[in-house]
Amino acid sequence: MDELKLRVAYGQTGNPPLFTARWVLDSTSAIGGLVGQFRPLVLGDTGIKPERNTEIEGGVDATLSHDLATVGLTVYQKSVTDLLLLQSVAPSTGYTQRIFNGGELRNRGVEAYIALSPVRTPQTTWIVRSTFYLNRSKIISLPVPAFNTAGFGTSLGAFRIAPDSSATQIVGTEGLVGDANPKFQMSLSSDLTRGRFSLGFLWDWKHGGDIINLTQLLYDAFGNSPDQVPAGNTRISTWAGGKTKVYVQDGSYLKLRELSLSMDLPAAVPAHFGMSTARLSLTGRNLLKFTPYKGLDPEVSNFGNQAIARDIDVAPFPPSRSFFLSIDLGF
Amino acid sequence: MRTSYARTIVALTAAVAFAGCDFNITNPNSPAPIGNNATRGQVGAAAVGLLITERADVTNWILKTAIMGREGYRLDTADPRFTTELLAGPLDPSNGAFGGGQWTAEYRTITSGYTILNVIGTAQIPDSQKSAVRGFVQTIQALSFLQILDAHTEDSIPIDVNRTVAQPLAPLVTNALAYAHVVSLLDSAKTSLASASAFPFDPGPGFAGFNTPSTFLKFNRALLARVRVYQASPSAPGSGTLALWDSALTALTASFVDPAASMDLGAYNAFSTGNQDAPNALSQDPATAIQLVHRFIKDSVELQTGGSAPDRRYLAKVTPRSAPGAAQADTFALACLKSALSWIRYPSPSSAVPIIRNEELLLLRAEANWFGATGSKLQAVTDLNTVRQVSGNLVVTTITAGSTNAAFVSALLHERLYSLLFEGDRWVDMRRYGRLNQLIIDRPTGCPSAGIPKDTVFSTLPINSFEVDARKP
Question: B40-281+352-470, which class in CATH?
Answer without folding.
Answer: mainly alpha
